[in-house]
């Protein structure tokens, strides 16, 4: 009878030990799973940050290019306007030279006409 009680206690102790081991393994498994989930979430956050940085950098480069294009167009327009103003100035100077020559020739004709009539 004692033997059976001892065997029963031993079996009971073994089951309790086995149950504790199974619970411990389950706890380790859950801890690993939680650690893996935390790692995956961390990677997702890092990826989101990286994508945001790339997006911000791309937008900044695009803004720089737009600003550069605007400044370049502005400079081209200013050069074009300066050239047009210079051409107008040359044209006006040529026109004034022609008027002055015509007046000079007219004055010479008048002077010659006065000389002939004297």
Describe this protein's structure.
With 118 residues, the chain is mostly helical. It is 98% helix and 0% strand. It is built from 1 helix and no strands. The protein has one helix spanning 2-117. The longest helix has 116 residues, at 2-117. It is rod-shaped and about 175 Å long. The N and C termini lie far apart (173 Å).
What descriptive keywords fit this protein?
rod-shaped; TPH_dom; mainly alpha; coiled coil; single chain
Task: Write a brief caption for the model.
By secondary structure, the protein is an all-alpha fold.
Describe how the helices and strands are arranged.
Elements: H1 2-117
Pfam families: TPH (PF13868)
Domain Trichohyalin-plectin-homology: 3-115
Coiled coil: 33-89
Class computed from helices, strands and strand pairing: mainly alpha
Number of strands: 0
* General shape: rod-shaped
What is the radius of gyration?
A: 50 Å
Q: State the order of secondary-structure elements, H for helix, E for strand.
A: H
Measured between the Cα atoms of the first and last residue, the distance is 173 Å
Which stretches are poorly predicted, pLDDT < 50 over at least 5 residues?
none
Helix fraction by DSSP (H/I, runs of at least 4): over 70%
Biggest β-sheet description: none
InterPro entries: TPH_dom
Pfam family, one: TPH
Keywords: Coiled coil
Domain Trichohyalin-plectin-homology: 3-115
């Amino acid at each position: 009878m004692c033997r059976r009680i001892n065997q029963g206690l031993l079996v009971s102790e073994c089951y309790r030990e086995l149950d504790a081991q199974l619970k411990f393994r389950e706890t380790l498994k859950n801890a690993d799973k939680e650690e893996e989930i935390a790692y995956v979430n961390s990677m997702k956050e890092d990826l989101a940050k990286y994508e945001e940085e790339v997006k911000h950098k791309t937008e900044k480069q695009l803004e720089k290019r737009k600003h550069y294009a605007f400044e370049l167009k502005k400079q081209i327009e200013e050069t074009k306007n300066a050239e047009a103003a210079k051409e107008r100035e040359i044209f006006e100077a040529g026109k004034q030279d022609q008027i002055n020559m015509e007046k000079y020739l007219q004055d010479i004709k008048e002077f010659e006409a006065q000389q002939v009539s004297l």
